[in-house]
Design the sequence.
């Protein structure tokens, strides 16, 4: 396992590289304007780029310099953007705002939003072709499998959240954990393990990064649940209390605000424990853990 000196992690600089890589990838595609514009509107909208940043930081934690994760970051952000566009549609969450702007179906129409989402799902896998040949046999196959698994789990979580279909024996707490670990946590997990895989992580590093990602993914969504109840709509950039109005399962609704905060604290400690075992190369992951904890949107 890598145990190097602390590695610099300039979030703004790395985010700029991610944005450039996404735009450069789209520039290579020569898509029809009616498809290119809505994809750019959804993908390149101002955002935190949490998942590509996690891929970069995970690559560093595994002993890489981070840049090898850029195609991974593009792929994961394409999947994330696709999921947001489709989640916002009237048939699902029916949202008018995303990141403080009109959602894509409000901006370009439902047909354009559906088709742009479909295209981004396919383009995510195409972007992985930019990964440089690796001395580790099968890296591309591993990355494709990891992205497939993360995407499938994300959609499974959306199905449970939207359509239900739970095992009758599950408690409400088990149901909400099942939703969150899939709908939100799965793509965060994919970003981390794919970044580590792109840097040829050894198995002990991969296991620790995987465990960290599981803790982080669940914690991130519980914080989202709390922001939906307690947040400022101007900062969050979308309508709030929609989960409550729709009688959706959330941690505050099922367990209350105090217990939700206790679970967040436990997950935070568990995540830090794994980073302690990784060592100084986990600098980026530590910064992102703090950023994702102390957020208003």
Sequence:
């Amino acid at each position: 396992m890598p145990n190097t000196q602390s590695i610099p992690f300039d979030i703004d600089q790395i985010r700029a590289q991610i944005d450039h890589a996404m735009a450069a990838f789209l520039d290579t595609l020569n898509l029809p304007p009616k498809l290119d514009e809505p994809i750019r509107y959804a993908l390149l909208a101002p955002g935190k780029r949490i998942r590509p940043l996690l891929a970069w930081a995970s690559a560093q934690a595994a002993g890489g310099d981070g840049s090898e994760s850029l195609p991974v970051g593009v792929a994961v952000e394409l999947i994330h953007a696709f999921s947001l566009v489709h989640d916002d549609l009237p048939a699902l969450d029916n949202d008018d705002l995303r990141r403080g702007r009109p959602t894509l179906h409000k901006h370009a129409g439902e047909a354009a939003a559906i088709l742009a989402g479909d295209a981004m799902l396919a383009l995510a896998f195409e972007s992985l072709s930019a990964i440089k040949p690796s001395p580790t046999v099968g890296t591309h196959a591993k990355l494709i499998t990891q992205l497939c698994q993360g995407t499938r789990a994300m959609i499974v979580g959306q199905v449970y959240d939207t359509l239900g279909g739970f095992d009758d024996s599950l408690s409400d707490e088990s149901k909400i954990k099942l939703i969150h670990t899939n709908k939100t946590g799965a793509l965060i997990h994919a970003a981390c393990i794919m970044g580590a895989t792109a840097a040829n992580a050894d198995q002990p590093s991969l296991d620790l990064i995987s465990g960290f990602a599981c803790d982080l993914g669940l914690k991130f969504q519980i914080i989202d649940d709390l922001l939906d109840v307690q947040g400022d709509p101007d900062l969050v950039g979308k309508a709030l209390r929609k989960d409550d109005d729709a009688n959706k399962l959330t941690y505050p609704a099922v367990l209350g605000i105090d217990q939700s905060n206790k679970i967040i604290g436990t997950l935070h400690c568990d995540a830090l424990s794994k980073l302690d075992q990784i060592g100084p190369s986990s600098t980026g992951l530590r910064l992102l853990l703090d950023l994702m904890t102390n957020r208003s949107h």
